[in-house]
From TrEMBL, chain A:
Residues 190-302 form the Na+/H+ antiporter MnhB subunit-related protein domain. The keyword Transmembrane helix applies. This is Multisubunit Na+/H+ antiporter MnhB subunit. The lineage of its organism: Bacteria, Pseudomonadati, Pseudomonadota, Alphaproteobacteria, Hyphomicrobiales. The chain crosses the membrane at residues 6-23, 30-49, 55-75, 90-113, 151-168, 189-209, 221-239, 251-277, 283-304. It is a multi-pass membrane protein.
TrEMBL record, chain B:
Keywords: Membrane, Transmembrane, Transmembrane helix. PANTHER family: ANTIPORTER SUBUNIT MNHG2-RELATED. The keyword Nucleotide-binding does not apply. This is Multicomponent Na+:H+ antiporter subunit G.
Length: 314, 98
């Protein structure tokens, strides 16, 4: 037990070291890889302070999906990358420095001078868990106490996807995302893309199911499902769908639509928008979470696939 | 019996850690991509394998033991595939074997 402070000390130093390395890396690609490692290490930090839900999200979204998105962006921007000796202008650097200093000072004030007692809603969050038939307070916050935020989060995801789609040329609107896949010769990738999805799909569903009582959740589960889909698309085993497909768009909306329908039904059966009736909260929560997980998985997969750059026929 | 199992854990986990340190030193010191990958995959295979083997006697239930083995298998799969892909990318970039 006495070695734990040493472990956390080293972990903290490693996080700061990787953050520094990411900032000073000359090549965009190297910086992105540093950022992915940084996300994974942050996941360990969150797990260390007993926030396993946040740790899973950080590893899946912060390290995983954001990492893949940035890798693809870096690969696309490589031709336009400035030479390593080019530096941004003095004014730009001074402004960045000032803003970073403000953020650092703000964080330092919060950490060094905490209010006493520290504000906490933990007791209030745990109090109503039995009424919701849930055991994990994080899930209760996301799906019950702050359900509106969670719903709007899905709308934000959709807006982000529309933003990505808008980057494609007009003539290809509704077509297939990304460039035509290269002829697959990497048998190792094909092998992984055939072997891993069955395991990953079960694990993604498990993450959603177990989130009622244990760390996990729709976002983490959806991310794992999306990763399996992306893997199959990268290996060329599955072609990405045309972004004009009606079934696809319905899938993209299903999470939000279910949320809104259940939300308005709350007026009739429980006396308020997004209220759950005392008799069967768990059934309604699952009814919302299952389409939401699918929506998250499809949206993340399409975000990584990118804008339409080919016609449906090509 | 407990003492023996604890001793086994300490020896196996220490040996696994040794392979991780050796792999990291190799990653930093070896001259080209393929030898670096060689160092890295040794750390993955033997390091994780020995650590999981060492932790198995400490598992409190059968489920936990199965999960540990599952983690080991997944790391094996990921490590082997990624090293193949990296090696191919390196070979393509160099145009010849390095």
């Amino acid at each position: 037990m006495t070695l734990l402070p040493l472990y956390y000390g080293l972990l903290a130093l490693l996080v700061i070291g990787v953050a520094w390395w990411t900032l000073v890396a000359r090549e965009t690609m190297a910086a992105v890889i540093g950022f992915i490692a940084y996300g994974m290490l942050l996941g360990l930090v969150w797990a260390g302070i007993a926030s396993v839900d946040v740790a899973l999200t950080e590893a899946a979204i912060g390290g995983g999906v954001t990492g893949v998105l940035l890798l693809r962006a870096a690969a696309r921007l490589r031709p336009t990358e400035p030479a390593p000796h080019e530096k941004p202008g003095l004014v730009f650097r001074v402004l960045v420095g000032i803003f970073c200093a403000i953020v650092t000072i703000g964080l330092a004030v919060v950490v060094l001078f905490p209010t006493d007692p520290a504000p906490s809603l933990a007791i209030a969050a745990a109090e109503h868990l039995p009424a919701l038939e849930l055991g994990n307070p994080v899930t209760a916050v996301l799906i019950a106490y702050r359900a509106l935020d969670t719903m709007l989060e899905k709308v934000v995801l959709l807006l982000a996807l529309i933003g990505v789609w808008s980057l494609g040329p007009d003539r290809n609107w509704g077509g297939l995302p990304g460039r035509a896949p290269a002829v697959v010769t990497d048998s190792a990738l094909t092998f992984l893309a055939k072997l891993l999805p069955p395991i990953g799909i079960v694990f993604g569903v498990y993450l959603l199911w177990t989130s009622a009582d244990n760390p996990g959740g729709a976002f983490q589960g959806g991310t794992v499902l999306a990763a399996m889909w992306i893997l199959a698309m990268m290996a060329g085993l599955r072609a990405p769908p045309a972004i004009g497909s009606r079934a696809l768009r319905l899938l993209l909306l299903s999470g939000t639509i279910t949320f809104i329908v259940v939300g308005f039904a709350g007026f009739l059966i429980a006396g308020g928008f997004l209220s759950y009736p005392a008799a069967f909260p768990k059934a309604l929560i699952l009814l919302i979470e299952i389409p939401m997980t699918l929506t998250i998985a499809v949206t993340l997969g399409l975000l990584v696939s990118g804008p339409a750059e080919r016609d449906k026929t090509s | 019996m407990t003492l023996l199992l604890d001793a086994f854990t300490i020896v196996a986990v220490s040996a696994g850690t040794f392979f991780f340190v050796a792999g990291t030193v190799g990653l930093l010191r070896f001259p080209d991509t393929l030898s670096r990958l060689h160092a890295l995959t040794k750390a993955d295979n033997l390091g994780v394998g020995l650590i999981v083997l060492g932790l198995l006697p400490q598992a409190t239930s059968l489920g936990m033991g199965i999960r540990l083995i599952g983690v080991w298998l997944l790391v094996q799969l990921a490590g082997a595939t990624v090293s193949q892909l990296l090696a191919r990318a390196a070979a393509r970039r160099n145009g010849a074997r390095t």
